[in-house]
Amino acid sequence: MQFIDLAKQQSLIKNSLDKRIQAVLAHGKYIMGPEVMEMEAQLAEYVGVKYCVSCSSGTDALLMPLMAWGVGPGDAVFTTPFTFIATAEVIQLLGATPVFVDIDPKTFNIDSVLLDAAINKVVAEGVLKPRVIIPVDLFGLPADYAAIEAIGKKYDIKILEDAAQGFGGQIGDRLAGSFGDVAGTSFFPAKPLGCYGDGGAIFTNDEDMYEKLVSIRVHGKGNDKYDNVRIGINGRMDTLQAAVILEKFTLFPEEVKLRNAAADKYNALLTGSVVTPEVPKGYISSWAQYSILARDATDRSVLQAKLKAADIPSAVYYPKPLHQQTAFAHLPYKDGDFPVSEAMSQRIFSLPMHPYIEDEDIEKVCAVLKG
Ligand SMILES: *Cc1c(COP(=O)(O)O)cnc(C)c1O
Predict the structure, then answer these.
(1) Is 1 a domain residue?
(2) Are 146 and 291 in the same domain?
(3) How far apart are CA 179 and CA 268, in angstroms?
(4) Same structural domain, 244 and 299
(5) How many domains does the chain divide into?
């Protein structure tokens, strides 16, 4: 059994994918070729925003909007410690200060009550300037944007949605990628919509942001790439990867439904034996991961060992919250500061999840866990 089965997906689009790739080899526009613009137009329409700017990775999709806002030393950027390192790494790269806020134990996403309190505290201390909130749509579930967008307004600070795992998720009729002021997603192969290498995209309705992103993506270009009006990066996504996304995107809306059916099946079989993931009313997850909670770290080791003995892969996202990472040892945090994230990191683990997982496989995983 595979944790994520990309080969099955490829077999469904093999012919059209080969044609797409051959078309790029024939026209030879490997950088910023027509497939890049075609993909951006399709994805912007799907998400329901004016602009999509593709870029080299999900990490750059977070870095570039922060650069466009001029985030830097003296600025506070609020985010969750229960995420992949990239979310907070980009804050530190720009010399700004990550301010961590604990998560809700049911959704694993940033706790909006604690977020308000954390911003209030930074304002009261008067040392750092609150600039941006980066909520993460962890495991595919959008964060609590009704509350977070209100907090953004209250303190007049920006919101950058980390939709690296959330692409395809929804709250009501709003799609992930449309929350806050700007959103970044990742096309790393294992994400809900992945390419065959690195890639990412940024979504926004803000025209000024769009223009800055287009410039930052190509070394801060002005009129052309030899006219440089700001410091940027080489942040382009290459044409071959855009061609891959164009074909994989034809399957994507259906794949989100298939992932939801798989999650429903897991939930039905596992409820009562482990803590299964909760999706709040009106939300749709894109199930980047299907993650459950064991009773404690020992119980988790036992369950993961049982799965391993049955040749079933499982994974822990995330074994160490970011405030406990060596890379952030300079920040004024200690063990115990984020009790929910710390407890979850001891108990959580993820099961095989992809659109093409067979019912029998789900049944087997659940039987092993309950056995
Ligand atoms: C994967 C991921 C990223 C980074 O994406 P890359 O394409 O690997 O750079 C950022 N944030 C979260 C939450 C992620 O899961």
Answers:
(1) no
(2) no
(3) 31
(4) no
(5) 2
The radius of gyration of the chain's CA atoms, rounded to the nearest angstrom, is 21
The DSSP bridge partners found for residue 238 are: 31
Q: What residue numbers bound the domain in which 322 lies? A: 252-370
Mean pLDDT by 10 residues, the chain (371 residues): 94 97 98 98 98 98 98 98 98 98 98 98 98 98 98 98 98 98 98 98 98 98 92 98 98 98 98 95 98 97 98 98 98 98 98 98 98 89
Whether 53 and 156 map to the same domain: the answer is: yes
Q: Pocket of ligand 1, candidates 54, 87, 90: which has the most ligand atoms within 8 Å of its Cβ, to mutate?
A: 87
pLDDT at 224: 86
Ligand 1 lined by 178 (C-beta under 6 Å)? no
Going by alpha carbons, the residue nearest to atom 2 of ligand 1 is 164
Three-class DSSP category at 335: coil
Burial class (CB in 10 A: 0-12, 13-18, 19+), 341: buried
d(CA 247, CA 319): 34
pTM, whole model, 2 decimals? Answer: 0.98
202: its two tokens: 């940024």
